Amino acid sequence: MSSSELKLQSLSRAPARRPRYGSSIKHAQRPKVIFVEDDPDDQWLIEEAAKCVGLFEPLMVDDGAHLLKLLEQTLADRYAPTPANLIVLDLALPKVDGFTTLRRIKEQPIWSEVPVVVLTSADNPFYARFCVSGGAAGYLTKPPGFHQLCELMACFEQFFTKPPPPLSIV
Predict the structure, then answer these.
(1) How far is Cα 143 from Cα 3, in angstroms, rounded to an integer?
(2) What pLDDT score was predicted for residue 81?
(3) How far is the C-alpha of 109 from the C-alpha of 19, rounded, in Å?
(4) Per DSSP, what are the bridge partners of residue 32?
(5) Whether the model pTM is above 0.90
(6) Is residue 13 part of a domain?
(7) At what angle do helices 64-76 and 98-107 cross, to 10 degrees?
(8) Domain, as residue range, for 37
(9) Does residue 20 have a pLDDT over 80?
(10) Is 25 in a helix, a strand, or coil?
(11) CA dihedral angle for residue 47, residue 37, residue 153, residue 149, rounded to 10 degrees
(12) What order of strands is seen across the sheet that includes strand 86-89?
């Protein structure tokens, strides 16, 4: 047996490492999620829950202005990839609030395709309707515990997996 055949054989026997919630997304292909959150305690909880779930690569941004600056860098190079597959946005932010940030994201055609989910402590039906009508893919209230936050993070997988296109019969 050649050394390359031995290497392939040993790789095929290696135990598969799977995230806790059983996702089929490989580490090298993990999507990127930008979390816009200003509270350091919530940032820590979100990062730990993201590690627990293992579905995506989290990037933490502490205010709307910072997120918009990050996104504007992609406008300079039209071939640059979008910096995220999903944006999770708090509403009560310093500098530029979540409502304004959402509006500015959805105004730019290059960013408007990136789904934005609002994750906030405000359990307000008016805010929810306003955000969804402004282009948010969803409005979620921050869960009370870590386990519930992990379950919520696992639900984000729906934004990364696309169903195959429908078959057309000619």
Answers:
(1) 51
(2) 66
(3) 34
(4) 57
(5) no
(6) no
(7) 10
(8) 24-156
(9) no
(10) coil
(11) 80
(12) 57-61, 32-36, 86-89, 116-120, 138-141
Average pLDDT over residues 62-71: 91
Whose CA is closest to 84, among 63, 105, 107?
Answer: 105
Give domain status of residue 111, yes or no. Answer: yes
Number of domains in the chain: 1
Domain annotation covers residue 170: no
Residue type, 3: S
- The CATH number covering residue 94 comes to 3.40.50.2300
Let me know: does 131 contact 118? Beta carbons within 8 Å.
Answer: yes
Of residues 106 and 84, the one with the higher pLDDT is 106
CB-based contacts of 48, cutoff 8 Å, min separation 6: 146
Residue 19 lies in a domain: no
Q: Is the pLDDT of residue 115 over 70?
A: yes
Q: Are 159 and 137 in contact (CB under 8 A)?
A: yes
Assess contact for 154 and 136: CB atoms under 8 A: no
Please count the other Cβ atoms lying within 10 Å of the Cβ belonging to residue 155: 14
pLDDT of residue 67: 93
